Amino acid sequence: MQKKLQLGELKLFLTSKFSDSIWSIFEFKKVWIITPTLQVVTVIFLYIVSLYLGYQEFLTKGTFQGYNPNEAFNLIFVPIWEEFIFRGLILVGIWKYQPVWIAVIVSAFLFGIRHYINLFYGGSLASVNEQVIYAGFIFAPILGVLTVKTRSVWPAIILHFLNNLLVLYFL
Q: In degrees to the nearest 10, what's the CA dihedral of 40, 41, 47, 53?
């Protein structure tokens, strides 16, 4: 019985369509034990940590998250606006008309391709190709499923901030 229930849940996930208002994905909702208030505090905290670490890097290296500070100011906002666009608008927009798995795959593919913009910020083709593969085929599907499961973009924003911090400062 348990196996049938899991297969039924998988089938529901792969074929379900978005039925809520498109804007509800931007609302803070309780996710597991994380209250909306804790989500807001976490987003603000991670934003401040990103600013602080970026400032420390600027003081020591003259760069901000590996980029010239004049071009990199918007990197602070990247996790928020990328999630709003790719999981909030694109994923949900496709999900409204197609099965959720198509929405997750298409939004992940577009998210990966979007990283080719880093060629204009001095990234080598090999390095950017690695970013595209990781972002489009590994990280974005995780963010997409997280957004679908929670029906909120905010947990994906939090995970995106954490990912960026790990990639920039620990690898």
A: -160
| Cα distance between residue 26 and residue 24, in whole Å | 5
Q: What is the pLDDT of residues 120-137, one digit of tens each?
A: 767 789 988 999 999 999
Amino acid (one-letter) located at 9: E
Greatest Cα-to-Cα distance within the chain, rounded to the nearest angstrom:
60
Phi-psi map region of 36: left, alpha, beta (phi>0 left; psi -120 to 50 alpha) = alpha
In whole angstroms, give the CA distance from residue 24 to residue 28.
Answer: 9
Return the bridge partners of 34, or none: 31
Find the distance separating the first CA and the last CA of the chain, reported in whole Å.
44
Whose structure tokens read 């602070």? Answer: 76
